[in-house]
Hints:
The chain is mainly beta. It contains 2 helices and 20 strands. It comes from Poritiphilus flavus. This is YD repeat-containing protein.
Amino acid sequence: MIKNYSDTFCKILSISWLILGATLLRAQEPKIFSRADFDLKGRVKSCLVITDYGKEEFEFNEAGLLTKSVTRFNEKDYDVTYYKYQGDELIERRNENYRDGLFDKYTSIAHIYEIDTLENRKVTERILSYAKEFLDQYEYLYDEENRLVKITRSNNEGIDETKIEYTTYKDENTQSTYLNGSLLRSVRTSAKKKKGIDYKLVLTKDFIQGIPSKAVEALYDKEGKLISEQEFQYDESKKSFKPSSLINYSYNENGLLSATARTSGSLEERKEYIYQFDGGADGNWIKQIITPENSYTTRRIVYFEPLEAEVEE
């Protein structure tokens, strides 16, 4: 980095860059969540997830879009997020935090979205605190193919610009993300055939101020299931990436994750996933047990009333 400064100051710069980069990558574009994102099938109205750290609650509308989520750490400490739509567009997301049973307006924020589709799609996101303070504004610009190409973040401290470039070489497609002109991330997607089976290979490289940091090579099957992840760390002395760990994923006949095997050097860690189902026509799982640690997650699922056509059948 900047060799004339102290190591401490260099570390602060790196951390600041990571935080800024993570913020911009997280805000790539407004995300709409549906039942499928939570591995839920059918006309699910709500799902209560009970975990070791607390409880999570999810509510959906009849179109299957997430309308409310609650993360409960205990009875008095919890976070609530509300999602509001106009048609199939997200127009508002509110994050409300409660501590010691009291609403905290200073850490609660609202995201307001304005969509302009007169020419190329443009989405403006304004972030405000419940204390009526302006925090950030993001402007997302899309090209003629409806691909995100530019993010402009502005606040009281200045303006940051993220550009996303798309290139194609032979059968490889690469998406490169630049933060204020410096490469932040590259994602290269290509096709791969293994033992006569078609796969999708996605290589993601992360950079800090344009300097390589880490990489992940992910392999997906034709149904989009993650088959393996090879993780790499950048070796500054050799100016190249070196493998650090490999994770292989297996699935059962229902398409649910059944096992993972992580190999790092001579060490291997294997986990197996066992499910209990609710017995309904859609076959949602209501309990997941992970061995050998025997940790578990349970789900309580409520469905909308069946449609008339489903009742007649």
